[in-house]
Specification:
- This protein has helices at 16-27, 65-75, 82-101, 144-159, 224-231, 279-291, 316-329, 384-404, 413-425, 435-449, 456-472, 481-506, and strands spanning 3-12, 32-35, 51-53, 105-106, 127-131, 163-165, 168-176, 179-187, 192-203, 236-237, 242-245, 256-258, 301-304, 338-340, 343-347, 350-352, 364-366, 371-372, 427-428, 453-454, 476-477, 515-516, 530-536, 539-545.
- With 576 residues, the chain is α/β, with parallel strands linked by helices.
- It starts with a strand and ends in a 31-residue tail after the last strand.
- The chain is built from 12 helices and 24 strands.
- Helix content is 32%, strand content 19%.
- Strands 1, 2, 6, 7, 8, 9 and 17 form a 7-stranded mixed β-sheet that branches. Strands 18-16-10-23-24 form a 5-stranded mixed β-sheet, with helices on one face.
- Helix 1 links the parallel strand 1 and strand 2 (32-35).
- Helix 10 runs antiparallel to helix 11.
């Protein structure tokens, strides 16, 4: 027997998007149950938020929402859903003001004004950093800007009385007559499977970035929502694309990137000052050097930060880095370079949604990093944090409004039993293979064949290897509910990795953060279109959809290099 819980709105995920959805759904009168993979408040990718971006803080002149939207859309290679991109920039200020009302604050200048700056690939000064209050909560990972956002959202969600199941993991979405009507869920603490009946369901499960390693994201981002949505027939988009960062440590202005020939190699890639360039060109340059044999042992380059000590007002995090390297590793950064390597960052692919955050399957919504299509194949830093609250609010509103007009959900008992049987058969406490063993194989495969710069031969070999791993993966060792959860993640990662390789083979060009060595150019004639991934009768079907260039198109930016330094960026004609 299994326990059954009923709710109006089921939210799977406990990061910023899930919390904002819960607040909104409760404000619209719906009962809400949140399924949170980790401990409530210590889950999801919002805790890792750094900079954010919005138009209009401090009354800066010359910037517009249209300019911001065109920066986002053009940098992503024009594959964004421009309706969603416009919603993002148009509603960000309202969400920022809301966070202020809920207790968030900003890093400020000495005169008390909000500290603003312009990150690479932004045409205007619009980036800011949140900071937590003096009595903020304690978190197990992340950074102060993310903590500040979570403090505000946690307070609001808790005050509204949503039901929370933490240490709980999505197994499968449940459908009836083509509509999502809830989910099977693993309660890790009790090693028990629960059934949640829901009128509407919101996925807020983050990315699938843990197909890669090393990565910057939280350990919870294992493609659970992507895989579950795919299995019930929802469209996924952009699964071939993932972002990387160029270094494993922060670097201050004046840093020199050195290869094994002791050459400061960035200038030959057109990069004079790495602080003026976005992560995509930096990562490309670093991995190109390593791929062509000019890296150090372990696929690394060296960062010479000695010039930074000649500058005034070094950032606080740099002083922390100096202290850490001195105390833990005995490295004096004034005289010695530090080894660094690229890391996987945020996976771009996700569930296709419309302006209401509805997926292509009735009853299923998605918000945050699990939702795809908002910005195309890359993004300037600052937009992701706002995606969580803008689309979290929208998902919560529309899911609640739909639920409020519906009868209780009706669960298909045969489907429940099949889900429970499959989850149970995946594990055995006496099995010799642990989930971590398979995860290492997945990460090794993507590292070798799909890391930053891809090519046909590597992708073909990588896809074959992922399929071999999947075929050879039998029962996994699970001694308790938490091990069981890790075993379920393995199958979600294998599916996400397979779709990543398939899409990467299909897209024969380079665009945004997606690089093919054998197709180095952006091909707007043949590939100004998104790849849609859909399961039909148990088989993968690929479809293609050209973006609607409503507000911004490649002709508007004719002559503009994709990765120009920020000082040389032009202004989108549509913004004037």
């Amino acid at each position: 027997m299994h326990e059954t819980i009923s709710t109006d709105v089921l939210i799977i995920g406990g990061g910023g998007a899930g919390l904002r959805a819960a607040v909104e759904a409760r404000d619209h009168g719906a009962s809400v149950t949140m399924v949170v993979k980790g401990k409530f408040g210590n889950s999801g990718c919002t805790l890792n938020v750094g900079t954010s971006a919005v138009v209009g803080l401090n009354g800066q002149n010359g910037d517009t929402n249209m300019s911001s939207m065109c920066d986002l859309v053009s940098f992503g290679g024009f594959l964004a859903d421009q309706k969603l991109a416009k919603i993002l920039v148009d509603e960000t200020m309202d969400r920022v003001q809301e966070l202020i009302e809920w207790g968030a604050d900003f890093q400020r200048e000495d005169d008390g004004s909000i500290a603003l700056y312009r990150s690479a690939a932004h045409t205007h000064v619009r980036n800011f950093t949140l900071k937590p209050g003096e009595n903020g909560r304690q978190y197990t990972y992340g950074a102060p800007p993310g903590w500040a956002m979570m403090d505000a959202l946690m307070d609001q969600a808790e005050s509204r009385g949503a039901t929370v199941m933490d240490d709980a993991v999505l197994i499968d979405l449940l459908t009836n007559d083509g509509r999502v009507v809830g989910a099977t869920v693993l309660d890790c603490r009790r090693s028990a499977i629960l059934v949640v009946e829901a009128k509407t369901t919101i996925l807020a499960t983050g990315t699938y970035s843990h197909i890669f390693g090393p990565t910057t994201v939280s350990p919870f981002e294992t493609g659970d929502g992507h895989a579950a949505a795919y299995r019930v027939g929802a469209d996924l988009t952009g699964m071939e694309a993932s972002q990387f960062v160029a270094t494993s440590v922060g670097f201050p202005p004046g840093t020199r990137f050195l290869n094994s020939e002791n050459e400061d190699f960035l200038p030959k890639y057109g990069i004079d000052d790495p602080r003026n360039f976005a992560k995509e060109p930096l990562t490309y340059a670093v991995w190109k050097e390593i791929k062509e044999g000019r890296g150090f042992k372990g696929d690394k380059v060296m960062l010479d930060m000695s010039a930074a000590f000649e500058r005034k007002n070094m950032p606080w995090w740099f002083m922390d880095l100096v202290k850490e390297q001195t105390e833990k590793r005995g490295i004096d950064l004034r005289y010695e370079p530090i080894a660094s390597e690229p890391r996987a960052h945020t996976a771009i692919g996700g569930v296709s949604i419309n302006e209401k955050c509805e997926s292509t399957v009735p009853g299923l919504y998605a918000a945050g990093a699990v939702a795809g299509g908002v910005y195309g194949h890359a993004r300037p830093e600052g937009y992701t944090s706002m995606i969580t609250v803008v689309f979290g609010k929208r998902a919560g509103r529309y899911a609640a409004e739909e639920a409020n007009g519906m009868d209780p959900a009706s669960i298909d008992s045969a489907q429940v039993h099949a889900s429970i049987a499959a989850a149970t058969e995946a594990v055995d406490d006496s099995a010799s293979v642990k989930p971590s063993d398979i995860k290492r194989k997945i990460k090794a495969t993507t590292r070798r064949y799909a890391w930053v710069i891809k090519d046909e031969e590597g992708l073909t070999n990588g896809l074959s290897r992922i399929r071999q791993i999947r075929a050879e993966t039998g029962k996994l060792r699970a001694r308790g509910g938490y091990d069981w959860a890790r075993a379920l993640e393995v199958h979600n990662l294998l599916l996400s990795a397979e779709l990543h390789f398939i899409g990467s083979l299909e897209r024969k060009e380079s665009r945004g953060a997606f690089f093919r060595d054998d197709y180095p150019d952006t091909d707007n004639v043949n590939w100004l279109k998104n790849i849609l991934f859909r399961q039909v009768d148990g088989e993968l079907t690929l479809d293609y959809e050209a973006p609607d260039l409503l507000y911004c198109d490649p002709a508007t930016y004719e002559g503009r290099l994709q990765y120009q330094p920020i000082a040389n960026y032009g202004t989108c004609a549509a913004a004037t």
